Amino acid sequence: MPIATRAFAATAADAPLSPYSFDRRDPGPDDVAIEIKYCGVCHSDLHVAKNDLGNSRYPIVVGHEIAGVVTAVGANVSRFKEGDRVGVGCMVDSCRTCEACREGLEQYCVPGMTQTYGSPDPKGKEVGQAITQGGYSDRITVDQNYVLSIPDSIPLDAAAPLLCAGITTYSPLKTWGVGPGSKVAVIGLGGLGHMAVKLAAAMGAEVTVLSTSDRKKADAERMGAKHFLINSDKAAMQAAAEKFNLIINTVSATHEISSHINLLARDGTMVMLGLSTEGMPVFAVPLLWRRRRVAGSLIGGIRETQEMLDFCAEHGVACEIEVIAPDQINEAYQRMEKSDVRYRFVIDMGRFDKAA
Ligand code: NAP
Ligand code: ZN
C-alpha cells in the first residue's frame, strides 16, 4: 500500500510553496519507512525552489535535513527497527560501485548520487513520482544504507539541521585537519556558518567570524568565536591579514572574495561552500605568494555523517533553531533572503493539521 504523504511543494520559481499531497513507496526489502517529525530549512532548498541554479523541475518538495522515527522496515533491514530515531540528509542513494562510493564518499559518486529531492527516481515510478521528493513532508521511504542514527541526547528538532548544515561544515574541518592550534575563520553566520563555528570550536580551533554587520556579534561569541570582524571594515581586514589556516566560506550569494584571500596564512585554504552560480574573481599573485589554495567541498559521506552526529552528541553540539509550522515556510524564506535567520528554521510536521 503506497504511503499517503502531506507536504509543501514549490510549483514554479515565482510561486509561494503550497500544500501538496502525494504517495511514498511502501518499504521494499532494504527500505526504512520514516515518519518525519522535523525538517530543517537549508538555503539550498530556497535556491532550488526559486530555480537559482536553472535546473529545477516542478512540482518539487524540497528539504534534506530530515529527522524522524522509523514506522516500518523491510525484510533485509537489520540496522533499524520501528521506533528508532533516524535522520536522512542530502542523498538517498548512489551507485555503490564507483571509487568514490567504495571510499565512503558517496556525495562524489561518479555517475551521480540520488539527491533527496529533484533527482530522477526509478523507485518512485510505482507511486507515480518521476523525481525524488524531499523532507517538507510527513513521510519518507529510504534505503537503509542512506539512513543515519540520531543519538538519544540530541533532540530531534535540533538534530535535523545537522544532516546538511552539520555535515557540510564538519567534513571540510576534518579534511583540512582542524584541531587545537588551528586558526579558522567562518564567513557568513547563517545555518552553515553557525555550525562551522560550533564544530571548529569543539575541535579546539581558535575561531573568527566574518559577517556583513555587527548584528550577530554577541551570538557568535556565545557559540565559541574568539574574534568577530565585519568584512567591509578595511582596517580590520588589513589587521587580520595572514592569520588563518582555514577559511570556511558559507556565503549564499555572489560576493567579493579576493580581499578574503589575504587573510590566509602560508599554505592556508579557503573552502567554498555556497552555491553561487556566477564567477568571482580570484587573483593569482596573492595565491602564489603564500602557496594559498581555494577549494570546494560538498556535504559529506554517509559514514562521516554518522561520525559527525556522534561527535555532536559527545561534545554537546546542536543547532540553534527557530521552529515553525509548515505554512510559515514562505515567511521563513523571505527572512532567509535578508540573512535574518537565527540560525536555522526547522519545520515541525506535527503542526501540519493547521495547514491542511
Ligand atoms: P543562510 O543560513 O542563509 O546563511 C548564509 C549567510 O551568508 C547569511 O547569514 C549571511 O551571513 C551571508 N550572506 C548572505 N548574503 C550575503 C552577501 N550578499 N554578501 C555577504 N554575505 C552574505 O544559508 P546556509 O543554509 O547556511 O547556506 C549557505 C550556502 O551554502 C548556500 O548557498 C547553500 O545553498 C550552500 N550549501 C552548500 C552545501 C555544500 O554541500 N557545499 C550544503 C548546504 C548548503 P551574515 O549575516 O553573517 O553576513
Ligand atoms: Zn542543505
Automatic annotation (TrEMBL):
Residues 12-347 form the Enoyl reductase (ER) domain. PROSITE patterns: ADH_ZINC. Coiled coil: none annotated. Keywords: Metal-binding, Oxidoreductase, Zinc. One of its GO terms (molecular function) is zinc ion binding. Its cofactor is Zn(2+). InterPro entries: ADH-like_C, ADH-like_N, ADH_Zn_CS, CAD-like, ER, GroES-like_sf, NAD(P)-bd_dom_sf. Its EC number is 1.-.-.-. Belongs to the zinc-containing alcohol dehydrogenase family. This is Putative zinc-type alcohol dehydrogenase-like protein.
